[in-house]
Amino acid sequence: MKRKCLAVGIILLFVGTCIIPAIAQDIKKPLPASRSDWLYVGGSGPGNYTRIQDAIDASSNGDTIIVYSGSYYEAINMNKQLFMRGVKLDGQDFPIINGGDDHTTVTINNDSCSFESFIVRNGPAGFLQKAIHILSDYNTIKNCTIYNTGSGVYLSSSCGNFIYDNEIKDGGARAIGLYSSCNNSIFNNNLHDHDNHEILFSDNSTNNRFYHNYVHRCTHNPAIEIEQSPFNIIEENNISGNYEGLVIKSSKNTSVLRNLFTGDGVLVSGTLEELCSNIFIDNLVDGKPLRYYLNQNGITVPADTGQVILINCSYFSIKNFNFIGAEHGIVLFSSSYNSITDNTISAGPAAIQLSQSHDNFISGNMINGGRGGIILSSSNRNIISNNTVQNQSKQPGICLSSSNNNKIIDNVVINSRIGISIESSNYNEIIRNNVTGSTWWGVRLDGSNNYVFNNVVSNCSSLGFRIAAKSTSIEQNFISKCETGIGFLYSESNNITRNVISSNNIGMSLSVCSDMNIFNNHISDNHDVGITISFSDNIVIEKNNIMRNNPNALFTIRLLALKTNKIKGNYWGLILIGLKIIPGTLNIHIYDDPFTGEEGFLALPWLYFDWHPAQEPYDIGG
After folding, report:
1. What backbone torsions phi and psi does residue 92 show, to the nearest 5 degrees?
2. Considering 216, 236, 251, which residue would you say is the last residue of a domain?
3. Is residue 12's pLDDT more than 70?
4. Do 60 and 199 belong together in one domain?
5. Which of 4, 11, 463, 551 has its CB 3.0 to 4.6 Å from that of 441, i.e. a possible disulfide?
6. SS3 letters across 138-172
């Protein structure tokens, strides 16, 4: 028995000598325990920090920082993985972080941070100011109020963030800006009263989801703008009362789903391929469906439509609609042979907008209010007739840009900034339109070979006609009660015939023009001067009635152009024997300023002559 016990003891001793070193080895290398401390700022607790940044500097990754009610005048940098939460004390609001004049109040440049329940502001609301600047991934911004800043939340190459349950308001730039940022979720936010955007997607910000937000009262630019940023989702937002609602620029595969637009709407631009890749489902504009048609033909658009957008469509009929408040009531892109007739459209940046769309018929529409009436860009051979456009505060009543061979006939444009504007457009006809009450110009012409005939333009604050054109005919128009009836600037080879220009301050002015033929016009009863010409050559003024102006004509001429202008056979309101003397100024070039490049002239009194004035007025009409 003793031998057995001795044997068992020896065996146990042997086993123990093998096990103990192994246990000792494990004890020397324990698994590290995760550290997660809580730090406190403000309040009355012992050892609480008074500055948020001091707590951040003392913290480690994974810590939680509790900030109590109070005002903290500092800019903070969350350069560790932290959970930061504001807490109300009795009767007080959430803690306020005021960055003052610092460009950024809160910077988050470490991944997986949480920033919750704060009020953030930073003084001057300029573009450089940012309330929260995120330069990292997988962060959460929740339940914050952000105001009086440039940008509220600014994401730079930042992905996988959650931004929700915040109010961002009253900023000089935008509520949220995404720059090269992807896979972010932005939801349940109240975004309002910013000058430029409520949210901007740019620089290839992709695969973001913006949903269940209230977006309203953006004052100067689109509330939501998506620029060169594909594969984003705009879903179930309430978008109302903005300068513009949603603008999509060159951003393919954008999904616009079940949004409610009130007093604004949607505008799209880009290539045909990009626009055809977008998805629009169940959106409402002013309580009626937004209809987005792709590659279809021969449809009569239903009457219960809040906004209609045609992409590569033809032979549509859009008739008898009443659009009130839609951003762009009717938008056509790459769409031809459509009829837009007898609609009533109020407010919005543009009532009817065509881009790269040809051979359409736009007639009998009533457009009142907003910032632009009928706007065409790169669109040819359209007919715009018998429309009434009034009270357009920002853009022209009717505008052609880079558009050729269109006809603008028998329209009435009242109280718009510019009545009819022809910009870089050629071979168009502007006939029998009535333009009155423009705050800038009645008719603007910039292009060549346009034909302007039998229009009535009156009561314009600046110019009745503002012309910087080439090879254009201005014929048989009636211009009255404007600051200047017709003003030519840098124009050449135009014919101005049989126009009646009366009761303006200045009848007609030409500045830096050449090869102009002013023939058989009636220029009378203008309060300051009938016709004034400066720094222009090869101007022929022949057989016009120029009378009862004060004075009838004034000239400023360069020495080298002294003999190129011709004045002959005009009727000056009285019987003249021999000649009519016209006072003027001769400018002799002296020097060029080496610093500014401006020319210096010596101005001398000079006289022009009509050597064979008419003895009685011409029968011009009017």
Report:
1. -120, 170
2. 251
3. no
4. yes
5. 463
6. CCEEECCEEECCCEEEEEECCCCCEEECCEEEEEC
Interval 117-128: pLDDT, tens: 999 987 655 667
210 and 351 share one domain: no
pLDDT at residue 492 is higher than 50: yes
Proportion of the chain above pLDDT 90, given as a percent: 74
Q: What is the DSSP letter of 286?
A: T
Q: Is the preceding peptide bond at 30 cis, omega within 30 degrees of 0?
A: no
Name the one residue in this structure whose structure tokens are 């033809």.
314
pTM of the model: 0.85
Q: Are 255 and 278 in contact (CB under 8 A)?
A: yes
- Let me know whether 348 and 234 are in one domain: no
Together in a domain, 386 and 241 = no
Distance from C-alpha of 150 to C-alpha of 181, rounded to nearest angstrom: 19
| 4: phi then psi, degrees, rounded to nearest 5 | -65, -45
Pairwise CA distance, residues 456 & 446, whole Å: 19
Q: What CATH number does the domain containing 135 carry?
A: 2.160.20.10
The answer to whether position 190 is within a domain reads yes
Cβ burial of 473 (10 Å; 0-12, 13-18, 19+) is middle
Which tokens is 110 given? 């470490």
Domain range for residue 598?
Answer: 344-610
Flag whether 615 is in a domain.
Answer: no
Residue 242 lies in a domain: yes
How much is the average pLDDT of 278-294? 96
Q: Total domain count for the chain?
A: 2
Average pLDDT for the chain: 90
| Phi, psi for 266 (deg, rounded to 5) | -130, 140
Those residues with Cβ within 8 angstroms of residue 336's Cβ, 6 or more apart along the chain or in another chain:
314, 357, 358, 359, 360
Amino acid letter, residue 158: S
- First and final C-alpha spacing in the chain: 145
| Residue type, position 23, single letter | I
Q: Confirm whether 270 is domain-assigned.
A: no
Among the candidates 193, 224, 251, a domain finishes at 251
Predicted local distance difference test score (pLDDT) of residue 442: 98
**228 and 366 housed in the same domain:** no
CA 257/CA 292 separation, integer angstroms: 12
Paired residues of 114 in beta bridges? 83, 140
Do both 217 and 357 map to the same domain? no
Q: Which amino acid is at 192?
A: H
Give Dmax (Cα) for the chain: 162
Q: For the chain, how are helix, strand and coil distributed in percent, rounded to 5? A: 5, 50, 45
Which three-class secondary structure state does DSSP give residue 17? Answer: helix
Residue with the bigger pLDDT between 20 and 221: it is 221
pLDDT tens profile 383-442: 999 999 999 988 899 999 999 999 999 999 999 999 999 999 999 999 999 999 999 999
Residues 353 and 226 in one domain: no
Pairing of strands 322-324, 344-346: parallel
The pLDDT value given to residue 578: 76
